[in-house]
Amino acid sequence: MTYRFGALGSKLLAIAAIALMCSARLGQAAELPDFTGIVEEQSPAVVKIIVEASTARDGSDINEQEIPEFLRRYFQMPNPPQGPQGPQERMATGSGFIISDDGYVVTNHHVVEGADLVTVRMSDRREYEAEVVGLDPRSDLALLRIEAEELPYLVLGADDALKVGEWVLAIGSPFGLDYSVTAGIVSAKGRSLPTRSRENYVPFIQTDVAINPGNSGGPLFNLKGEVVGVNSQIFTTRAGGSIGLSFAIPVNVVRNVVNQLKDGGTVTRGWLGVTIQNVDRNLGESFGLDRPRGALISQIASDGPAAKSGLEPGDIIIEFDGEAIETSADLPHVVGLIAPGTEVDVLIVRDRKQKTIEVEVGGLDAEDSVDQAYRNGEAEDEQGGRLGIVVEEAPEEMLSRWDLAGGVVVRSVEPDSPADDAGLMPGDVITAVGATPVRSLDTFSEIIGDLADNASVPLRLIRRGSPMFIGLRLGD
């Protein structure tokens, strides 16, 4: 059956189609979150942090030079005095938020580090001089206190409730522009961003929320208006703007650190006393894993918690206190949140078999450095034909310097050999093949000679003073 429409009918059909399209778009718009309620209710507890410090200070979040030139005229910053000058004071700004009605304020460590004077300014323009209760550079958190009562405050959300793809928003003072609001989604969780001291205790939340200098220390909210993180870092262009890669400290870390700073002004973390590395495909095969996973122990601190519990170099930690360890970066995140003195079960892979070991977690104080915690004649050449390397006995001076019981030094590596494919380099000191220690050149030759064709084995070695494992596969 065929229907014919006149001009009027065609117009009616067109109008109906447009109405359907508009209705669909309105339906989509209705599904988008409305942030106005959160902003109205929560912004009174968000504060601006104003820091005065000497010019030598390097922890500020924003200063005049970081403000784009086209914005500087809005900040009424005077021209600097000319001529010789003595020590000068500089001002910097960041963000923060109140967590209790009696005046506790959370912000970033790098915002107030080295400050001579910290002022907290509220949204109604009230200002208070703040006391620095405690600092924790490892998490980049700081706890302040102001003398005031019945203040508005924010509620910390539940641990581990945040999901990737969830809507979040930030309130802060980017470039000094007070109480700016930006929104986006959670892009990822558990991001590892090692600090300058090679520490990695924070499983950062990654978002695409627009965060800029001045937002640091401000809250990241979920749609319930709860704080789920503290904005801390951004990846940026040379111009200093946001490129959609921002990172926040998750609320479980914030809660742990704040509680400790409140109680004693310092933070103590769980410590295992191991040096670890990732497990790649070759290492996974050589250790008998079904897939690459876990944290491979390459070194153990003498008299540390791991050594006392019976953990050994070459063990792969795949579960710690019930938490799966997928990569080496996961382990510090889990261990750091465990109270020192706690006994936990650790699931490892050793000699291609799974084994559970009970470990009493140690403590790492705020002032302890990780490096300190981990330190308490003519060579005969040998051709490693099966591996494609030339090795020689490690000299006594080298063994003594690195506290080794034995080993062989790689002097050359043949191109396209198993050793070359595995990534061995001249200067590497091989200290173990599989679970067998290399005590001398003779023992190394015997171990290599006994390996089966196509075998996949882990080599433990020292490279530029650092222990590590690599996976090596032999040819036919």
TrEMBL record:
Domain PDZ per the UniProt entry, residue ranges: 256-352, 380-441
Source organism, top-level taxon: Bacteria
PROSITE patterns in the cross-refs: PDZ (PS50106)
SMART domains to which the protein is assigned, alphabetical: PDZ (SM00228)
Signal peptide range in chain numbering: 1-29
Gene3D superfamilies: 2.30.42.10, 2.40.10.120
Reaction(s) catalysed (UniProt annotation): Acts on substrates that are at least partially unfolded. The cleavage site P1 residue is normally between a pair of hydrophobic residues, such as Val-|-Val
EC number: 3.4.21.107
A GO molecular-function annotation: hydrolase activity
InterPro entries in the record: PDZ, PDZ_6, PDZ_sf, Pept_S1C_Do, Peptidase_S1_PA, Peptidase_S1C
Intracellular or extracellular location(s): Periplasm
Top-tier EC class: hydrolase
Purpose of the protein: Might be efficient in the degradation of transiently denatured and unfolded proteins which accumulate in the periplasm following stress conditions.
NCBIfam families from the UniProt entry: degP_htrA_DO
Annotated family: Belongs to the peptidase S1C family.
PANTHER family for the chain: PERIPLASMIC SERINE ENDOPROTEASE DEGP-LIKE-RELATED, SERINE PROTEASE FAMILY S1C HTRA-RELATED
Name of this protein: Probable periplasmic serine endoprotease DegP-like
Protein's organism: Congregibacter brevis
